[in-house]
Write a structure and sequence with these properties.
about 375 residues, alpha+beta, Ribosomal Protein S5, domain 2, 8-stranded mixed beta sheet, 4-stranded antiparallel beta sheet, 11 helices, 12 strands
Length: about 375
């Protein structure tokens, strides 16, 4: 990245920063309902080389897209900068909205986080850029506040109604751990996730069915949850317990809303159980929780698609102990808990099933719990 920066701009960068994509181990669509999530950071990441510039403007070059976008203070208005560069301009805007003075800068970036796969490539971009700009500008911003600022970028500048999960994972995760996050209080802690110690590994398989939080039905699900919470007289669906679920469902006006609420309440319970399982070192017992989560997303929240369902079913038939869709839904990735050394075998089985069904070829890799946003050089 240092060499790429020199090639693009003719001088050395001040430093190189990175922020990872993430896999959500369990806890889907619970974050914006003030609930619980359990993601971990991937080894795949966005890397940014950067240096200050003196004209008060920002220039960003994407090596992946071979595009350069430059913007100034007058462009720090939601909707003014579009496409992938909106995530960069949005970070500058969100930092300024939080009261920070941001140094103009040149940034050169690259990414190996799959785009549109539900692995938070956008949050990785936001958090890598934010980490670089905070350092370049000499700002003091606590890690959790960095996640909140990056989320503000995505919500208010880009226009995706996501919760805090993605940015928190990209910022706060530590290697060899998952992150347990209470999305209401923002309390969080590391949860040990040494799968190899119990003879397991996590397959991440991209179905190559792209999705978008901005244009998909993600927003519709969120609105339904908000409406249900109002009807039930609670601040958020997190406040509905398993013990109270049947009574709560009886008070809702239609079956669609009842199923949406049932998913959120039971998914929160599955996250809490997953934390207990991991704390106890019983990582094989994550498998039935993954299976139950997928069933709930498929039948109650209705956010899976045929490619995703086929991938999950095939992975289980090929030897996975448990599998589920991960991410916001309507495409993207699945994860599968498999015996050590069998990930490729399971991936090939899914590829064969896709070929037989007339779908395009999937891609897969091992999900390795990795470190969050940081300075590399």
């Amino acid at each position: 990245m240092t060499e790429a920066f020199v090639q693009q701009l003719g001088h050395d960068p001040v430093g190189v920063w990175a922020a990872p994509g993430r896999v959500n181990l369990i806890g889907e669509h619970t974050d914006y309902n003030d609930g619980f999530v359990m993601p971990f950071a991937l080894a795949e990441q966005v890397v940014v080389a950067a240096a200050p510039r003196e004209d008060g403007r920002w220039g960003v070059r994407s090596l992946n897209r071979r595009q350069t976008v430059t913007f100034g203070p007058q462009d720090l208005v939601p909707g003014r900068v579009e496409g992938w560069a909106a995530y960069v301009a949005g970070v500058v805007w969100a930092l300024a909205e939080a009261g920070h003075t941001v140094q103009g800068a040149d940034l050169v970036l690259t990414s190996d986080v799959p785009v549109g796969a539900g692995l938070s490539s956008s949050a990785a971009l936001e958090c890598a850029v934010l980490t670089a700009l905070v350092d370049l500008s000499g700002l003091e911003v606590a890690p959790l506040d960095r996640a909140r600022i990056a989320r503000r970028c995505e919500n208010a500048y880009v226009g995706a109604p996501t919760g805090l999960l993605d940015q928190a994972a990209s910022t706060l995760c530590e290697a060899d751990n998952a992150l347990f996050l209470d999305c209401r209080s923002a309390d969080h802690r590391q949860v040990p996730l040494d799968l190899s110690s119990v003879g397991l590994e996590l397959l991440v398989l991209d179905t190559k069915t792209p999705h978008s939080h901005v244009t998909s039905e993600y927003g519709d699900r969120r609105r339904t949850c908000d409406e249900a919470a109002k009807i039930l007289g609670v601040a958020a669906l997190r406040d509905v317990s398993l013990d109270d679920l049947d009574d709560a469902l009886s008070r809702l006006p239609d079956d669609v809303m009842r199923r949406r609420v049932r998913h959120v309440v039971t998914e929160d319970a599955r996250v809490l159980e997953a934390v207990e399982v991991a704390d106890d070192g019983r990582l094989a017992d994550l498998a039935p929780l993954l299976d139950a989560s997928h069933t709930s997303m498929r039948d109650d929240f209705e956010i899976t698609v045929p490619t995703v369902d086929l991938a999950v079913e095939t992975a289980r038939a090929a030897g996975a102990h448990g599998a589920r869709m991960t991410g916001g839904g309507f495409g993207g990735c699945i994860i599968a808990l498999v015996p050590v050394g069998s990930a490729d075998e399971v991936g090939r089985a899914v590829a064969a099933a896709f070929d037989e069904a007339g779908y395009g070829a999937p891609a897969w890799f091992l999900g390795v719990p990795s470190a969050g946003a940081r300075r590399l050089v």
